[in-house]
């Protein structure tokens, strides 16, 4: 499961321009530098903000659903030609699912939407700088290690 998820996240990066990836990576490094060496309270605040950050997949899903439903409503109430919109949106989602790319992807990346993996990288870097993973050394069972990582 993890391997499949990583491949999907990597497909998005491969499908994004080098400039967009570089901009996102620079922002992530800037965030780590800004918050990672601060007080544990400020790191906590940043971690809470990261847990609410929308990843690229969520943005695509919500926008696609909104457009598809809009097309269905307008098709049913105004003009049947609006039924084309859900078809276009569905084809974009299919393309993204199969290839990791769809026409809205460059726009969303330019807007700064990150993959879940990119968000988690920042989260894990902040936790490591805060010392969270030092507790792993005291864990003696797989369950204990997992509990440390999950907290």
Could you please describe the fold and organization of this structure?
There is one protein chain. The chain is mainly α and 151 residues long. It has one domain. Helix content is 75%, strand content 0%. α4 runs antiparallel to α5. The radius of gyration is 19 Å and the shape is elongated.
Write the layout of secondary structure elements.
Elements: H1 2-15, H2 18-35, H3 40-52, H4 56-77, H5 84-99, H6 104-110, H7 116-130, H8 142-150
- Rounded radius of gyration (Å): 19 Å
Number of self-contained structural domains: 1
Q: What are the segments in which pLDDT stays under 50 over at least 5 consecutive residues?
A: none
Query: Which whole number gives the mean pLDDT?
Result: 91
Q: How many H/I helical runs? A: 8
Share of residues in strands: under 5%
Please state the overall shape, judged from the principal axes of the Cα atoms. elongated
Compressed to H and E, one letter per element, the order equals HHHHHHHH
Which class of secondary structure composition applies to the elements? mainly alpha
Biggest sheet overview? none
First and last CA, distance: 21 Å
Strand count:
0
Helix content: over 70%
Which characteristics define this entry?
elongated; mainly alpha; 151 residues
């Amino acid at each position: 499961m993890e391997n499949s998820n990583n491949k999907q996240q990597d497909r998005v990066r491969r499908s994004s321009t080098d400039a967009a990836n570089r901009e996102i990576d620079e922002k992530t490094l800037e965030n780590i530098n800004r918050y990672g060496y601060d007080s544990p309270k400020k790191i906590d605040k940043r971690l809470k903000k990261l847990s609410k950050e929308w990843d690229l997949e969520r943005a695509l899903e919500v926008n696609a659903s909104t457009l598809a439903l809009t097309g269905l409503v307008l098709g049913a109430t105004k003009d049947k030609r609006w039924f084309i919109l859900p078809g276009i949106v569905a084809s974009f989602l299919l393309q993204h699912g199969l290839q990791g790319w769809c026409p809205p992807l460059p726009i969303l990346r330019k807007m700064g939407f990150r993959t879940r993996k990119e968000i988690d990288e920042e989260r894990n870097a902040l936790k490591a700088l805060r010392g969270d993973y030092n507790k792993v050394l005291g864990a003696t069972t797989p369950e204990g290690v997992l509990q440390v990582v999950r907290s």
